[in-house]
Structure formats: structure tokens, C-alpha cells
Specification:
The structure is a single chain. With 147 residues, the protein is mostly helical. The chain contains seven helices and three strands, in the order H-E-H-H-E-E-H-H-H-H. The protein has a three-stranded antiparallel β-sheet. Helix 6 packs antiparallel against helix 7. The protein starts with a helix and ends in a 6-residue tail after the last helix.
Length: 147
């Protein structure tokens, strides 16, 4: 899922404050100093995407991140890999990964991809190889049982 710069800044603020924030506090804390109405519009859009939850507190809403940062990072990494393979024939492993995605726990998948990325490979092909290994490790545990 692609996030705009303001959406990313808002999500970063919410991840830093797991107890939640009010829209006014968010607007005041952002470097770009957007209008409160702009922040509210973005929060509503993030809420519709399922990334932010809101809870009524008095006359205002308290906003909290509804997804873990690792899951968003993993999704961005997966999208980058998908973009890198556009125009090429997809391998069986890539097709299997795409088919298994709904069944894979996003947080576990994110942890594995993050661990692979933290190995700090130096080339794009090395990054792709390490991520492919992490994907294989996750999907192998999710293989369907034979009858």
C-alpha cells in the first residue's frame, strides 16, 4: 500500500505514541505544520484503509495506529520486489508466495523480512536473494497439508 508523505509522517507520529494522539496534537507536531482540517482528512482516509483506529473521547477522537510498522515496511518491500519483477516471467516460487499471502501472518512475515533486510546485503540481487529466502522460509511453514 502506497502512502503519501503526509500519511507517512502521521503514521510515524502514531507509531511513536502507541497510546494515541488527538488530531490537533498531530498537526502541531508535524514538521510541515498542516492545517488541522488537512490532518483530519488524512486520518479519515487512513482509517478507511484500516491503518488507523479512532476512539471518541469527549468531543474529539483519539487516533491510534491499527497496524504495526513492521507490517507496513514488509508490504512496501513486497511491492518493491513486485515492481522489480514486472516484465519478467514470474517463477513458481513467486506465484506460490502470491497465492499464500492471505494465509501468512503479516506480523510474522514482517519480522522475517525485516531480519533478512537487516543482514545489509550490498547489491540489489543480494537483497532480492535474501528476501526470497525469507519468503521461502515463511511460505514453507504455510504449505498445505496433503490429504
Amino acid at each position: 500500500m502506497h502512502l503519501g508523505s503526509l500519511e507517512r509522517a502521521i503514521m510515524e507520529s502514531l507509531w511513536q505514541r502507541p497510546d494515541g494522539m488527538f488530531a490537533q496534537d498531530l498537526a502541531a507536531g508535524l514538521p510541515s505544520q498542516p492545517a488541522i482540517t488537512t490532518v483530519l482528512t488524512v486520518l479519515v482516509r487512513l482509517s478507511r484503509k484500516g491503518m488507523v483506529s479512532r476512539e471518541r473521547v469527549g468531543r474529539a477522537h483519539l487516533y491510534k495506529a491499527a497496524v504495526e510498522k513492521d507490517a507496513v515496511v514488509a508490504e512496501a518491500m513486497r511491492a518493491a520486489l513486485d515492481e522489480a519483477t514486472v516484465g519478467r516471467r514470474r517463477s513458481r516460487r513467486q506465484v506460490a508466495v502470491a497465492a499464500a499471502r492471505p494465509a501468512v501472518s503479516r506480523s510474522r512475515f514482517a519480522r522475517r523480512l525485516t531480519a533478512a533486510a537487516e543482514a545489509r546485503p550490498t547489491t540489489v540481487s543480494a537483497v532480492h536473494g535474501r528476501l526470497a529466502q525469507a519468503v521461502d522460509a515463511v511460505t514453507s511453514t504455510m504449505a498445505p497439508k496433503s490429504r
